[in-house]
TrEMBL record:
Gene3D superfamilies assigned: 6.20.440.10, Aspartate Aminotransferase, domain 1 (3.90.1150.10), Type I PLP-dependent aspartate aminotransferase-like (Major domain) (3.40.640.10)
GO MF term (any one): pyridoxal phosphate binding
Organism of this sequence: Salinarimonas soli
SUPFAM superfamilies registered for this protein in UniProt: PLP-dependent transferases (SSF53383)
One GO process term, biological-process aspect: glycine decarboxylation via glycine cleavage system
Region (Disordered): 1-22
EC number(s) on file: 1.4.4.2
Top-rank lineage group of the source organism: Bacteria
Protein name listed in UniProt: glycine dehydrogenase (aminomethyl-transferring)
Any one Gene Ontology cellular component term annotated for this protein: glycine cleavage complex
Length: 523
């Protein structure tokens, strides 16, 4: 089938034939073909000189055919990517309720600070004497992180939360080996409700993983931890607040049990944003905890991009912190790059080249300085308040597996309330797209059937939350009233209809090929 531009309509594209248009566009909802469909292969948008004679160094593997890239003018290229950006949903578009991901607002002040000369253009190979300001910023950020967590050391270099988690567990492994117990302590306890990176990290560095059950109340109980302890246990990896959105009330007793057994307490700090200024993990007994700067301190989200996941360490683990780290030297601040320069410390090595992500350090410290201790505490309180406001606003329509207790920064629903409606968690999430919302996290945590995990963050206003709650109430009532058609085909109004995500993952189409020519009917 061809549109009025003579191009085949894209598979799965939403259609509205009530008021057709010649272009296929619907006002600002513009159809945007692929670059390959709109570009011209015989021209280019720039002038490129003919290269001088050279000898290829690809061993006969160099290209012999046309490169096959379309040429576009600058306005065409700009319009293409602007139109694609308008099809994206982001925190600047609306409420982003992904639980355990914390799509937090990124203040523009942070961005201005990160672009200041000396920060935006700093290079990791500059002489240390020329980057004293950058090192001072790193030292100040480290001081804030240690103060907020009640710990004695921090490694800033990890590039993401899971990377910081890896660094923390490697510090634990180094401490165990320094005591001569490396051959005997090979087991790491991981609750059933843990983030998936926890058992993966432990296994990656050679530990055996042993599960600890999460009970029906959503908590890990000290009795279950004690039952799993033994001389072979190196550590426990526990998230607090946990992935069910609950604070672990027995965390102090769990930490004491680990320490009495000679083990270490690794705390997954992904949800630290719920307790900043309210509780210091070091006071609760943790030995290591990574911090997602994007979740807690408003740097851009995404480990695949400019991520940062510092890991804080207790006094027991501080000597094993990786290089590089900042310290005061005889002639100013210096960056300790090698283990043999660390003095009495015993760094386990390094986890990344250079020092980490300076741009993220600047943004995080900007957030801390602009908020102050009282502002960061208020942000935590507002995040918890907003989540409980949603919890109360939907409690009569949507079932909550742990509904008898307040939640922390995120509220968890299950699919019990959808029984016999013919609507699934996925259907409900897809229908939210039609209402202009990115869906919440679905089917996680795995300990709850049909999970729907909602995290509004502290930056949403009451008016924003009221509209979100009203929208979900309308969807919930429609599902219970038997309006199944509203859900099973959703989304109806998105640029693309519901896709076969399983097939897309298993059989991805990685190369564009021109469509077969369409034969015109003879007159």
């Amino acid at each position: 089938m061809l549109n009025r531009q003579g191009r085949p309509t894209a598979a799965g594209q939403a259609s509205d034939n009530a008021h057709p248009t010649f272009t296929g566009n619907k006002a600002l909802a513009q159809v945007e073909p692929l670059l390959f469909e709109i570009g011209r292969y015989e021209t280019t948008g720039v002038d490129i000189d003919e290269p001088e004679a050279f000898a290829p160094r690809l061993g006969g593997m160099e290209r012999t055919g046309e490169i096959g890239l379309p040429g576009l003018s600058e306005p065409e290229a700009m319009r293409h990517y602007v139109r694609l950006s308008q099809k994206n949903y982001g925190i600047d578009s609306g409420l982003f309720p992904l639980g355990s991901c914390t799509m937090k607002h990124n203040p523009r002040l942070n961005e201005r600070m990160a672009r200041l000369p000396g920060f935006g253009d700093v290079h990791p190979l500059q002489p240390v004497s020329t980057v004293q300001g950058a090192l001072e910023l790193m030292q100040e950020l480290a001081r804030y992180l240690m103060t907020l967590t009640g710990t004695q050391a921090v490694a800033l270099s990890p590039k993401a939360g899971a990377h910081g988690e890896l660094a923390g567990m490697m510090a634990i492994k180094a401490a165990i080996e320094a005591k001569g117990e490396g051959a005997s302590r090979r087991t790491v306890l991981v609750p059933d409700s843990a983030h998936g990176t926890n058992p993966a990290t432990a296994a990656l560095i050679g530990f055996q993983v042993k599960a600890v059950p999460a009970r029906e109340d959503g908590w890990v109980h000290v009795e279950d931890v004690k039952a799993a302890l033994g001389p072979d246990v190196a550590a426990i990896m526990l998230t607090n607040p946990n992935t069910c959105g609950l604070f672990e009330p027995q965390i102090v007793e769990i930490a004491r049990a680990l320490h009495d057994a000679g083990g270490y307490f690794y705390c997954d700090g992904a949800n630290f944003n719920a307790i900043v200024g309210k509780a210091r993990p070091g006071d609760l007994g943790i030995d290591a905890m990574h911090i997602n700067l994007h979740k807690t301190f408003s740097t851009p989200h995404g480990g695949g991009g400019p991520g940062a996941g510092p890991v804080v360490l207790s006094e027991r683990l501080a000597p094993f912190a990786p290089v590089p780290f900042v310290r005061q030297g005889a002639s100013g601040l210096e960056l300790v790059e090698h283990a043999d320069e660390a003095g009495e410390a015993q760094p386990f090595g390094r986890v990344t080249a250079f020092h980490g992500q300076m741009g993220m350090y600047v943004r995080a410290l900007s957030y801390m300085l602009s908020h102050g201790s009282d502002g960061m505490r208020r942000a935590s309180e507002d995040a918890v308040l907003n989540a409980n406001y949603i919890r109360a606003g939907l409690a009569d329509l949507m079932s909550q597996p742990f509904g008898d207790k307040p939640c922390m920064h995120e509220v968890l629903f299950d699919d019990t309330w959808l029984k016999d409606t013919g609507v699934t968690t996925l259907d409900f999430a897809k229908a939210m797209i039609d209402e202009g919302y990115h869906p919440m996290t679905v089917y996680f945590p795995l300990v709850v059937h049909g999970a729907m995990l909602i995290e509004p963050t502290e930056s949403e206003s009451k008016a924003s939350l009221d509209l979100f709650i009203a929208t979900l109430r309308d969807l919930a009532m429609a599902a219970k009233a038997g309006d199944r058609d509203r859900f099973v085909g959703a989304p109806y109004h998105a640029p693309r209809r519901r896709l076969d995500e399983t097939r897309a993952a298993r059989s991805p189409v990685l190369r564009w090929t021109p469509p077969a020519p369409v034969q015109e009917a003879a007159e």
